[in-house]
C-alpha cells in the first residue's frame, strides 16, 4: 500500500484523489459483481474476480472489465460448486430456524448453532475470495480461510460488518445494495492484507 501511495504521488495524485478513486472503483466493482451474481451459483466467482480487480487497482496494476470477466470465468471453474454448496447450507439453516420456531425440543439451540455456522461460512467465503488467484483451488482456499476466520476474530467481525451494512443499505434504499457489494469485497481484501502483514 505504501508503494501504491508513492506511485500515486509520482503521478501527481493527491492522497484524497487516490482514496476517492479507490472508493469509486469499489462502487463500480460492486455493479460488476451484482451482474456476475445473476447466475445464482456464480457468487463465489464474482466475489473472487471483484477482489482480484480491487487488489490490482490498489496496487496500481493494469486491469478493467476485460480482466474481471477473464478472472470470473477462471474462478467459475470450481466456484459454481462452492456456490451450490452455499445455497444448500442456507436452505439447511432455514429448515433449522423453522424447526426452532415450530417448538421442536432443542430446536432453538440447533437453529442458533446453524445460524452461527452460516455466518462463519459467509466470512470464510469472503476471506477465500479476497485471496483468490487463477491458479488457486477453492477447497484449499476455503480450508485456509476457515482457519483464519477462527484465528482472527477481530478481522472476521470486520468482514461480517460488511454484509450487515449491505443489508441496511438494501433496506433503506434498495439500489444502494448493488454498488455496496464492492465495499463488502474491499473490506475482505483489506482484512486479508492486514492479516498477511501481521
Automatic annotation (TrEMBL):
Keywords for this protein: Membrane, Transmembrane, Transmembrane helix
Transmembrane segments annotated in the record for this chain: 20-46, 78-97, 109-132, 157-190
Top-level taxonomic group: Bacteria
Protein name: DUF624 domain-containing protein
Protein source organism: Streptomyces lasalocidi (Streptomyces lasaliensis)
Amino acid at each position: 500500500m505504501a508503494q501504491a501511495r508513492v506511485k500515486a504521488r509520482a503521478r501527481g495524485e493527491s492522497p484524497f484523489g487516490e482514496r476517492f478513486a479507490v472508493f469509486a472503483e469499489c462502487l463500480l466493482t460492486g455493479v460488476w459483481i451484482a451482474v456476475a451474481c445473476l447466475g445464482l451459483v456464480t457468487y463465489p466467482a464474482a466475489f473472487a474476480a471483484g477482489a482480484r480487480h480491487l487488489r490490482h487497482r490498489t496496487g496500481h496494476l493494469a486491469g478493467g472489465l476485460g480482466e474481471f470477466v477473464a478472472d470470473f470465468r477462471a474462478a467459475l471453474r470450481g466456484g459454481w460448486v462452492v456456490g451450490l454448496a452455499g445455497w444448500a447450507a442456507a436452505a439447511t439453516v432455514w429448515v433449522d430456524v423453522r424447526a426452532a420456531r415450530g417448538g421442536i425440543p432443542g430446536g432453538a439451540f440447533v437453529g442458533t448453532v446453524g445460524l452461527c455456522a452460516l455466518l462463519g461460512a459467509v466470512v470464510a467465503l469472503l476471506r477465500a475470495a479476497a485471496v483468490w488467484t487463477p491458479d488457486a483451488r477453492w477447497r484449499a482456499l476455503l480450508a485456509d480461510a476457515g482457519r483464519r476466520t477462527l484465528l482472527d476474530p477481530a478481522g472476521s467481525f470486520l468482514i461480517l460488518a460488511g454484509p450487515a451494512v449491505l443489508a441496511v443499505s438494501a433496506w433503506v434504499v434498495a439500489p444502494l445494495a448493488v454498488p455496496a457489494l464492492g465495499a463488502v469485497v474491499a473490506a475482505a481484501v483489506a482484512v486479508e492484507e492486514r492479516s498477511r502483514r501481521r
